[in-house]
Amino acid sequence: MTEKKFQHEPVMPDEVLRFLRPERGGIFLDATLGGAGHAVRLLEAESAVRVIGIDQDPEAIEAATRRLEKYRDRVEIVLGNFRDIETLECGTDIDDLAGALMDLGVSSHQIDTTARGFSFRPGTSLRMRMGGTTGEGREPAADLLNAATEQELGRVFREFGDERRWRVLAREVVRRRKARPFSTSDDLVGALTAVLGRSASEREKARVFQAVRIAVNDELGALKEGLESIRERLAVGGRLVVISYHSLEDRIVKQTFRDWGRDCVCPPELPECRCRGKALGRVLTRRPERPTDAEVKRNPRARSARLRAWENSGS
Q: Among 286, 309, 293, 150, which Cα is nearest to 240's?
């Protein structure tokens, strides 16, 4: 059953293959394996391709293992977060990657499964841990909302959710939790409704819940660490493709790729270059690739996807 639930359509698969060029063969890292949709496409593209798949969700690992059974001689699946790639136990050498993919989206299964606590559907427990309902290392969303200071909550709503009423919303959360701790989606939706003075739209609720999810999982911190760790493991000519769904994620990827593609990253006030003095590689996407209208119609959750790609020069 888990396998079926996790079988979702991969986002922008043709574009991913175009940039990763699996026809060259080699070892490819799928750092966000999920339902293995992209991994299958890579393995089917060329028999000389091997894939290392990483995911922090045990349910995704279980589903991907089943789906990739017929490719088992060319696949290694590892439970973990891509930010910890340096310490993950892999039987395959990952220091000479032909390519790597990071698809930063939350899977349909995670969103739709009430027990995972990502949804703002009535009665949903406030969990939101990407590692699963029993995931370790991260406090659930309810704990964050019940323990964070008003200033910390305000920062979450402002920076991760672009919420204009961040001050008032943070104050309302603190006020309400004094009477009764937050435990379900209804509590957070109720706070937002009180601030708005009306029923919140789907988009407004999604924005606030997304902000809390990003904070719970430290998604932006993980992204920054993961980008650096994966770049260091690319072979000369190896490519990194990232699909993001949030403006903050895309901004980090854009700036990181831009810095890697510059000869000098010293502060402008320095009289002479004291950094590496040479670009690490080249940006392959001046602007992010976007899904086609046909794909969005077929898979509405691809609508906000942005794909950027970078190639290692070996500098």
A: 309
Rg (CA), the chain: 21
The pTM assigned to this predicted structure is 0.87
Mean pLDDT over 236-243 rounds to 98
The architecture that CATH gives domain 139-217 is Orthogonal Bundle (1.10)
Residue ranges per structural domain of the chain: 2-109+220-312, 139-217
Helix extents (H) in the chain: 2-6, 13-20, 37-45, 58-67, 108-112, 141-147, 150-155, 166-179, 185-196, 202-217, 219-231, 247-260, 293-298
Phi/psi of residue 237, nearest 5 degrees? 90, -5
| Environment class of 268 (CB within 10 Å of its CB; exposed 0-12, middle 13-18, buried 19+) | exposed
280-302: average pLDDT: 95
Q: What is the pLDDT of residue 116?
A: 47
CATH code of the domain made up of 2-109+220-312: 3.40.50.150
